[in-house]
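Protein modeling request. Please complete all fields; requests missing the sequence field cannot be processed.
Requester role: graduate student
Desired output: 3D structure, token encoding
Chains: 1
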Amino acid sequence: MTSSNPANPADGLPLPRRYAAIATLCLGTALIIIDGGVANIALPTIARELGVDRSAVVSVVTVYQLMLVMLLLPFAGLGERIGLKRLYQWGQLLFAVATLLCFFAKSLPFLLIVRAAQAIGAAAALSVSSALIRAIYPAKQLGSGLGINSSIVSAGAALAPTLGGFILGIAPWPWVFASAVPFAIGSLILGRALPDTPPRDTPFDVIGAIMCAAMFGLVIGGLESGVHGDSPIVSAAIVLAGALVGLYFVRRQRNTPDPILPVDLLAQPVLLLSVIGAYTAFIASMTLIISMPFRLQSEFGFTPVEMGLLMAPWPMTNIVVAPLSGWLSSKIPAGALGGIGMAISIFALILIANLPAHPSHFDVIWRMALCGAGFGTFLPPNARLIIGSAPRERAAAAGGLVSTTRLLGQTTGATLVAALLALGLGGGATPPLVAATLALIAGLCSLARLRPSIRMPQSAEVAETVPTLKQSR
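Delivered output (473 residues):
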């Protein structure tokens, strides 16, 4: 087998092994995205057939997202100790097994339990995927690699609603969870091509990992219980407990050489702004993606098959825009690209909020495509700035931060939609207007990175020639 550790790590894997490794990550990413996305389109059907409230069935999404948020950073730290490839492969295997169990789900409690197990495998794989991308591609191609990965995410997201709508039209809803199994088999077969990054000979902070999971779990779980539960006082107490754990955890991490929560990276203003911008952007996108099926069905009367087709233009546009944006990130500062992307999305979200009373398919399709183009312009350069600027030995931590920010934003968005549904505001123009406000915040964060007092030198954004944050200042 070709050596997995080239003399110069900046050169990535040698060809043709690099192609096999890229295919492995593409299949694994598609598996996780498709199986997560089909759940969104099936939510109204699941709620109706299981006889549960619409706001309660959103927990099918939020429990999955919650487990991911809780475990991504601890798994990223674990991957640095046991090897990125090993953790990725074990995560893929666990996810595939849990996916098959989802096929047999016949009740909401059982489905939630299996989705939680599924999320454990997904967290293991996702926590190290960005670090593996950095090890696979030559340094100068990192932006393009992240753009390709975003395209796979978008392609999976595009296929998921269409596939889910088609399956719901011909089979019971449990079948939608078995649709991604072939991707798992392909990823596991090709997985030997992944780079064998050497594990770090440092102890794993078990206490820190537990505190990290508890912090996210208590805060998000408390917010969820506030939406679905009957006791606001208990929910507030849970959130407060999570905040106190988080306060102590962050203080403890500041004195840790290799923190699970990368406070050393977040100390850089440009990266902190990137994380805040990504967080609000993902809340915005998830708010629209989850709320739109309810609006399309209840307000406009579209069928599940039609809903799948109408939701597909968003990710389909990303398939084209994300790689282009990733390539442009080697030529144009991420702050400028992000500002342009969010301006496009804000305009599209306002148009979606003001759909005509009886929209045609085309009325929905071109608005969703325009909105997807805006988010596709924003996200790859933002991720590259975070991952490419971290020291190589901290690549897993930076990748875990990117993934955690994405999942935390998506979980927050799902919780926000559940709250809007519970208040009777989740099916009309309110969700896209809320999303537009969040996109505005993301755009302002992106543009703020252009200030000379905040931003890195342009060379640090457009070329992977600076190995550490300290050197890039």
